[in-house]
């Protein structure tokens, strides 16, 4: 049977506020355990939550970024469950009245097709602390530094049908979050975490199948693998005539295995109710508009600008505009090189390929944007050929130098563009190629183009690879066509 | 000396009749001598008190300080006090030394008042007789042959003030926990408008109903206390930003022409003839000062107890989840795993009434029952509030009974918790509506004091205190003291 995969995402995003959502503690990552846990974070008897306006601002920024409705009245609820990293015994979250209502996110797929993924809502809530199971000899340590870090949970509709779509959606969200400064989106620190709901249905069927939820995926790669794994698992069960159990699963990306965490029957009754310590939050249009006015440029708008301003292709523009860091890297190097298209080619091509193969982000890139700009400038002004530039790139990537011109000199990659010198090389080479010249001159225009290449090899050889190929071409054409 | 009010003691300190150390020692001695039989204190902070008294004397000697400098008082053990055991009447917090001061606590500290200790209370403020305290029951100082309850949950505060072990005490009221013990102990107690007083550092029972207030002998002392307690607190987002008047300023205002409503639902055939006649006498007294009375209706008041016993337990079921044995408070011995740690710590750390309310609350919030219980109760709460809003359109104050009867014997309500819950039948609706209410002594039944309740419109504590003070100027019920003190 042909199966259709249906995927919906719940994404937890830590907001880039200085302090926590309901206390004044710092949200900084990586401090000594419990050094950022105040009386409120420890849930000391008698303590009360005080909302942090910055968390609201950032949640509203997200809503505006995806064109969603901002709810002018939102309500915090208590979600009751016992766990040591949840010090109050409940999580303060929003159930029925979230801050951000329905919105849309457009994704672009590798084949160039676009698809709209609907956002059901996004709500504000507090993060939990961490249970540390490893270091305490059979005991569990509790670190409440993260407890109370503001989050938005973004809930999509089940609008995705493949891991490619889900990953494209996740990347788009990541790009919006980072571009707008809503969060740092640093997945290695858990700043963005994905829960993936997956179900299958026979192709053509309208009714959704039973879904599973795979929790807490913290990289695009694991997400892709986890979806593939879960889809395979479900297909196997269904093809064997089995049924899918509604459950929450945990995926181990290193081993590519998953296990059931809890079934629907074991699911908690969270006994949600409005938090009586927090009044409903009322915001007005003026406040929303003031946030809209401060909203930085978002990826879609940036892509349109790149097409208009730099005459890039749609594909390149989208690729470069998607991520604020990449976009800024491109714009910096384009400014220095004075050639936007060539800069775009290098950032989207050589540089991105290396970042991917080394599995590092553009912030960790060993070549800074200015340096790449210098390199592209030397290609543009003819100092170095494209193939020579690739050699320079390697040296720069290895961080052996940060001076493009010095590398070109040291490696002897400087192109010879002195037409007198080139002409004499051409004369010398042509002197030994009488047969080829005759063949060329008897050929028609179409054939001539092909035969021209036969002269370039020996010319480059004779110039030890330093002859400017463009100029060689011009000189050759002049001589042969005489 | 122990019969003096705060107002009088403050004058005595100012005129050098006695020092704060002398005054404080006087009360500490009385506590030592008398409290064995009453059990109104859980913790007496003798050393701290004497140190604070010394400091207060020094401040006064330098010509500084306030009217409160050097005045001894006590805090209900529901308020976190830095460095001092704060138990909330529970085994769960028997070992809990609070790491910070509640806002109320720091208000009294800043004013220079001298805290004698922490008063007994029903466990987590859940009870109307002080029988649920882990630290033993509190005996009403008015008890004669039979031991009687002081009321609850602020029974320790009430008993301590009634026995003159402290001139005043702080208290809290979620469904009547200030007013009912005030009624049963012959005191003047006030529950302010919800949001008037900060809840920060006050261990939560039911967050949308809890409010701290004064327990005193006179309306004048209550007004002085409220001056210290009221005001917005940035640490409590439900506290309201609104100017705080001087509550002592209008105590003597004439009540000529004041319109007082008598809810017909509260003056019904179940009211005892004795209480009926006490209330009639009070009405006549106020009439003689020019107040006018009219019957009003609060048609949904019969629903207040059922609604309260859904909402308060629902909120408490979540509020008390933090007592899990993990970070502070009671932890069971040798837990074998996390579930065991939770289950036994909470089973062993909480008393029966607390467990009962957690269970009721968790049930009312659970899937499939939420709409029928919690949502319905919230709807009823709105109706009750609207009743009051309508009533206050053409009256200024409501007068009613506070408690159905004077102090009763221990275990007299039997095993039926609902009988105990009905103790608060006249007081609960003001908590549900968020209105201010107070109780003041109105007469005696069989040698026991009983109070009447005044309910005001939102933020009209001044008006309540004004009526109470005028009543106390013309009567002496509030001056009566138990025999054996």
Structure overview:
The complex is a heterodimer of chains A (482) and B (485). In chain A, the strands form four sheets. An eight-stranded mixed beta sheet of chain A has the order 5-6-9-1-10-11-12-13. Chain A has a three-stranded antiparallel beta sheet with strand order 4-3-14, with no helix packed on it. A two-stranded antiparallel ribbon of chain A has the order 2-15. The termini of chain A are far apart. Chain A is elongated and about 95 Å long. With 482 residues, chain A is α+β, with helices and mostly antiparallel strands. The relative contact order of chain A is 0.09. Chain A is built from 15 helices and 15 strands. Chain B has 485 residues and is α/β, with parallel strands linked by helices. Chain B has a domain at 6-257: Amidase signature (AS) enzymes, CATH 3.90.1300. Chain B is 38% helix and 13% strand. Chain B is built from 15 helices and eleven strands. In chain B, the strands form two sheets. An eight-stranded mixed beta sheet of chain B has the order 4-6-5-10-11-9-7-8. In chain B, a hairpin with a 2-residue loop joins strand 10 and strand 11 (448-456). The longest helix of chain B is centred in the C-terminal third of the chain and has 21 residues, at 371-391. Chain B is globular, with a radius of gyration of 21 Å. The model of chain B has no long low-confidence stretch (mean pLDDT 96). Classes of the chains: A alpha+beta (482), B alpha/beta (485). The interface between A and B is large, with 29 and 44 residues.
